[in-house]
Model the fold of this input.
Amino acid sequence: MLAEQAAEAIAERTGVSRHRVAVVLGSGWQDATAEIGAPRASVPMPELPGFGTPTAQGHVGVLHSVRVDDNDVLLLMGRQHLYEGYQPADVVHPVSAAVAAGAKIVVLTNAAGGIRAGLRVGEPVLISDHLNLTGRTPLAGATFVDLVDAWDPELRALAREIDPSLTEGVYAGLTGPQYETPAEIRMLRTIGADLVGMSTVLEAIACRALGARVLGISLVTNLAAGVTGAHLSHAEVLAEGHAAAPRLGKLLRGVLERV
Ligand code: HPA
Done:
């Protein structure tokens, strides 16, 4: 299987046979790794079996192996998205490889538009549940995966111990790449979304199918379309990530020290 091949390559290239935790760093999160520590090894993603080249701006496309206390941690700097033309199997391959490489816990991070009133730009929000609105799934065949508590309640509680000001929200995952219309945001609010973005849901489903525990954190990089009347841009998403990096990095480091 391709995930196993990739896991073997990760072990070979990093010199670490098992990584217990993996973190996917999405848009706006790349700078946060400065707080986590110097990598012991780094591998360009395209050199690993089955990995593509992330094309979204702000996605570095490198895998780092870093030791945090007693844990060997994989940092996946960038991800592949449906909007880049990747299939669900490609989108989830890096997390499947990470699980094959030993990850029992996968931390999924992303940038999101804030829908719920009161959410502020620059604020990290724990994902409590999701709406998969991509119309796609990474699963094939009769794979009936339970998604109750898919976003691990104990890991969320741990994150809130580290930062008691953290709130939680429901993340709606769409394909993009266009941002939503104000009417779509009104619809999403009505159906229960607090946050909106273009990633993460397929990876979470794949991780649950493989038995890994999932923690999700969205950085609110903008208020969703129509909330203020402002226009949306990817440059703003990256700039807000840059500004929030120290806080995000401390939060991630705190989580990695305690899991
Ligand atoms: N919509 C969708 N994806 C996003 C947004 C948004 O407003 N902000 C960051 N990623």
